Amino acid sequence: MAKWTYSDKVKDHFMNPRNILREDNEADFHGIGQTGNIKCGDEMIVYIKVDPDTLTITDCKWRTYGCASAIASTSILSEMVIGMTLDQAYAITAKDILKELDGLPDNKVHCSVLGDKALRAAIDDYYRKNGMEDRVRTKGAKVVCQCMQVTDEDIEHAVLDGARSFLELQEMTKIGTDCGECKEEAQNVMTGYIQKHFGL
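^ thats the sequence. predicted structure below, dont judge the formating
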C-alpha cells in the first residue's frame, strides 16, 4: 500500500473540506475572486461576506477544480480568514497556509497559492463593488502567468526579495509550474526589474 505523503492535517482537510459552496447562491456574497486556469487543471473561486462597519470577513466559501493539495489549502484558508479584517486576510501568504497545514510535498506547493490569490481577488472585488477602488491593490498589475495568476508586481517583489534566476523566481512565486508557456516573458520581466532596481 502506497504511503500517504501528506500530513494528517492535509488529509483531514482533503477528506473533510470545510466551507465548500454547495449551493448556487453567489449573489449572497459581497466579494468573489477567481484564479487559475481550468485548461491547466487547477481553478479556484473564493466567495466572501463582509461586515461593512468593521470590514471583517464574516463568511468564506469556495469552489475548486483542483488536486488534494489545492482543496486542503483552501479549506484551511477559509477557516483562517473568518473573523479577520480585509487587511489581515489580504496579507495571508502561501507560506502561512503551508505552516497551518504542517507542510505539503515540494511538487504540490504551487497548489497552495491558488486559495490566497483567489482570496485577494475577492477582497479587491469587494472594494470595487463598494466604492473603495483606492484600496484595490492589484490595479494596474499585468498577469504574466495565467495558470498561477502571477503578475509583474509579484515578479518585482520576488526580485526585491533576492530572485536572480528563473528557478529562484519559480521557488518564490510558483510561476510557470503548470504549462510553462509564460517562461520567456517571465524571464524578460524579471531581467527588467533586476536592471531597474540593481542596474545588473
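The radius of gyration is 17 Å.
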